Please model this.
Amino acid sequence: MSDERSSGQDLNRRHFFKAGSFATVMAAMGGIPLTAQEAAKLETADAKVLPPPKVDPNYKEKPPGPPVRCGVIGLGTQGRDILTTLAKLPNGPVTAICDNYKAAFRRAAEAAPNAKQHADYRELIANPEVQAVIVATPTHLHREIAVAAMQAGKHVYVEAPLAHTIDDARAITTAAKGLPKGQIFQAGLQLRENPQHHHVLKFVRTAATGKLAVSRGQFNRKQSWRRSSPNGDRERALNWRLYKETSIGLPGEIGIHSLDTACWFNDKVPVAVSGFGGILQWQDDREVADTVTVILEFAGGLRHSFTSTLANSFEGEHDVFYGSDAAVLIRDNKAWMFKETDAPLLGWEVYARKDDFLNDSGIALVANATKILAQGKKPAEAASQTEPPLQFALGRFIEHINEGTAPDAGWKAGYQATVVAIKSHEAVQSGTRITLDPAWFQV
Model:
């Protein structure tokens, strides 16, 4: 069950550009930190100038809820990243870990030194000390583990995509849909639980950007995805992403986040997907493309394109939404809005400093402005206050458990995103356009 899913300096979609370096680039283009009015006010904003945000002397940060004892199954790179993240949370103690590869326990011991070690996931699920199970195994192994954990009454978090086939994804989703009130299931769609993306969503869905015309996402990272081992069987297991029987490739393992953001921001699933790609850089025994392009088609003509290559790192990762009044760029857990010269005045942007560069002027869109100001920090410090999406996702998972609230990244969002990712991968592998049957999205 060990998953060498890359993170850190290798394949972690959260850490491509250091905040300082990219902030410097955006400053040159006019992007500056701004703690704007709460984005919800955009729903009724007009040309009236709104007052700037103020420090609330009575502001108190919400205290963390009681601890939720977690068990993590799958101690590859992603699993270890999860352990490290949980260690940073005040209420996410790890009481048990599981993998069927002994060496994985040695690597995980630093982040979870007091956790009981299990070689069989069924033992971890049966452990009465475990309240919540986090599934971080390779994608094709999710179904059996996730369903068993839910049937045992555990709260469950499953990394995205939920599965590598629609049948497996539907089985997980059917189990999640039938859970009793208060038993939480959350998919690993980290951006759905991220306050920064919720903040930007309100700009995209209101008059701030005008009518959306097109959107695109990108993930570029020069690295092979290959893992080495002196044991041939072990090496094959480590490289599950490279083979057709176990992988849904770049669209599934990476692109799912960009594709899901497009569906989420448009509040609909696509009607068709086209794809193409190939093995252009890494000439080995892999069977899935190392360079891909996916185009989602939505009703009404809107399209979202996603491109990714493991051959080159230039421009890293980002998503851009182009509207008639403004474009919004999301990158490195930060966002900027670039207004058209004929766009109407919204009011709050008059408080932003604007620097022109090549006729572009960017305004930083920062979530948690109230919290930042209440801490006595300047608006210019806001760009450094964002936390990794995984930390928000796991923190929100624990919060949902304590409060009995439904996750934004619940079973429906997780299932629909997985279907889109699977069909996008199929389109890339076949080089065709696939009309998406609405029945595929039903559970």
Summary: Residues 282 and 332 are 27 Å apart (CA to CA). Confidence is low (pLDDT under 50) at residues 2-53, 372-376, 379-385.
